[in-house]
Amino acid sequence: MANIERLRRFIQDMTRAVEKSGADEPAMLREGKKLLAGLIARDDWLPEEFALSHPDTYRQYLLYCDPLERFSVVSFVWGPGQTTPVHDHTVWGLVGVLRGAEKCEEFERAGENQPMRKTGEHRIEPGSIDAVSPALGDIHTVSNALADRPSISIHVYGANIGAVKRHVYVRETGEIKPFVSGYSNSVLPNLWDRSAEVRAG
Ligand code: FE
Prior knowledge:
Layout: H1 5-21, H2 25-40, E1 59-65, E2 72-78, E3 86-87, E4 93-99, E5 102-108, E6 117-124, E7 129-132, E8 140-144, E9 151-157, E10 166-169, E11 176-179, H3 195-200
Antiparallel strand pairs: 1-2, 2-9, 3-10, 4-7, 4-9, 5-6, 5-8, 10-11
Helix pairs in contact: 1-2
Bound molecules: fe (iii) ion.
């Protein structure tokens, strides 16, 4: 059974962190990184229905959104060969790999009608964390680095990311298109059934 307490504690800690440091992006990213590293250090808490891949495209399952939309937590599940479009975020984001491995490629705009310029590429392994934001570099793709099984990463963003107006970029031409990512699920994990521990206590 999923150890949902781990996710509940993470969300409680993230809520305290945005209250304290939400207006200070570098501090927020420092604290968020530490907390996300703690969450992904163990792979025993993500309920199975939020870990399912889809044969056609990657899935993005909302695990939690702060009531004031100051942050959101999403599990991304990539099947073999699946990849995001080239996209930006417009808010800070943290990406930690829980299962498998992922390939990140960074891009920048090269000018009107110019192909996107690739500025880097790296692999994220389980336990390691990437940060994005308009201040750090905000345009990338993320793909499953494994050819034979799904990979899963946990993303934390400084907004309700499924409701943010952002952009995808046509790699070959640099064309910018409006993008709102949405979510694959309509029901969220139940963090709040603590009855077993209360009965036992
Ligand atoms: Fe991204």
